[in-house]
Amino acid sequence: MVEIGQMKTDFISTASHELRTPVTSIEMSINLIKEKLEEKMDKSEKELLDIAVEDVYRLKLLINDLLDMSKLDSQNIITKVHDVEDIIKIPGSIKKSKMKNNDYDFKYEKRDADGKIKMDNSKMYLVFKNLIDNAVKYSKKGSTIKMESSVEDNYFYFSIINKGNKIPKSQEKNIFEKFVRLSQSDHTPGTGLGLAMCKKIIEYHGGRIWIDPSSEETNKFVFKLPLYRGDENENEKDTDS
Amino acid sequence: MKMRKILIVDDEKNILKTIKTALEGDDVSVDTAMNGEECLDLIEQKEFDLILLDLKMPVIDGIEVLKRLSEKDIFIPVVIITAHGTIDKAVEAMKLGAVDFIQKPFSPNEIREIVDDMFERNEVVEENASTYKDYFQLAKKSAQQREYDKALDYAFKSLNKEEEIPEVFLFIGFIYEVINEHDKAMKYYNATLSIEPGNQYALDRIKKLGDSL
What we know:
The structure holds two protein chains of two kinds. By secondary structure, chain A is α+β, with helices and mostly antiparallel strands.
């Protein structure tokens, strides 16, 4: 079973790798044509070119997401004991890079929290990155994206709220399934794998992710992870590495 | 402006054609080679300011090209073109003086940016250095010349200017690995991850070093 899992991971990894070269040529060609000829094109030609630019970008995202997804198995998720502070600071570092374009206002409220958490740091980074990317994609420019982290009742909680396209109630459950997107008809880039990855990672860590139906005009994603309550020896051994 | 002479080496003709189109202009001339052998022949015949080099090529691969250039004491700045999964070769390439990488897929602007960055590096001198980027450019320039102590010194100065730049921490990790100080390399790869937990290069190197220790 382990071997089949590894074969699958290797296959997706190789396929993603091999796709990168042709995707580079396509992306380069389309963008070069756009640079050289856009001014001479009529409206429908421009539209067609924009479709190509948009979809090659989606293809790039898909290759990266497939690769990330292929790594979400027991051999590739390696958990270690961390201070809760380590997980709290991850959204802050992602926020910094996102704020460079000034299109959105980020607010991050961190409540002081003690305790330990057993997690794969890099996989949790993927969760935060996907949730923040998602909030950015579906927010109106100039709006505020609000994040909160806290510890309550032996759980670490994180929530992210954005104003934008409200996810219909009917889609709240299946939005975490693979290849489900909020809207297939809009032009928001995405692969439909981001939230599925989040769910898989959170559940692997013994947690849960859901949409909080708090308001009519906002989307609020929440996840919780159990705090680590193992013995001190294991703690020292793990955090040392 | 002085003519910039660039050589692109890749066994994919479509990659050669598109990069050439993206870069060529009034002040930039571009030659192309389909493999390592052609690349070495062209370097014998003409002068180049910069080489964009794919690592994975049949017969003479990118690493072998770097080795042969090194043996002949030819020091031309090189940007390595990688696809995901070839980061293993990064430290080997760095030992041979290639410290810049661009990962596929990339856009015309991304390839132009890295080329401009390489040419700007020649203009940076210590007397005028003031930003993290200036010192990081000096660090890379020293590493290209395989002056690793100097490269580390500049990289630390770069960190004094801006503390939380993952690529500088990663670079220091690479340098320590190049000079076989693996414990220190691990420390800086881990520091990279503390700023950017998803950094794939740092994760790959930690796994690699962890396996070999």
